[in-house]
From TrEMBL:
Its EC number is 5.1.3.32. GO terms for molecular function: L-rhamnose mutarotase activity. SUPFAM superfamilies: Dimeric alpha+beta barrel. It comes from Solirubrum puertoriconensis. The keyword Glycoprotein does not apply. GO terms for cellular component: cytoplasm. Pfam families: rhaM (PF05336). This is L-rhamnose mutarotase.
Length: 104
């Protein structure tokens, strides 16, 4: 299983709304993430900075790189764009993280 970690940034004042929207994640979005091979996806919030830390676990031969072309993904990004720092296509600005330590 591949693990991918990255950060994103919330806009000020939306720390309550961001998790609320995820509690109501659209079933069709969950299905697309599952179909893309994402088997575990967690997002953590540093409330002091508004920084989000995300970890995805992906199966071998996943298709997660194709998610930006999915219509439901684009709709989700538009829905979340008012809460996050985004690119012109509404996708969140993502900073990939390099693993420096792991113990299992």
């Amino acid at each position: 299983m591949e693990e991918v970690a990255f950060t994103m940034q919330l806009r000020p004042g939306v720390a309550v709304e961001y998790p609320r929207r995820h509690e109501e994640i659209w079933p069709e979005l969950s299905a697309v993430l599952q179909q893309a091979g994402i088997r575990d996806y967690s997002i953590f919030l540093d409330e002091a900075s508004g920084k989000l830390f995300a970890i995805q676990k992906r199966i071998p031969n996943h298709t997660a790189d194709e998610l930006p072309m999915q219509e439901v993904m684009q709709r989700w990004w538009a829905y979340m764009a008012d809460l996050m720092e985004t690119n012109p296509d509404n996708s969140p600005i993502v900073t990939p993280l390099r693993r420096v330590f792991h113990q299992s």
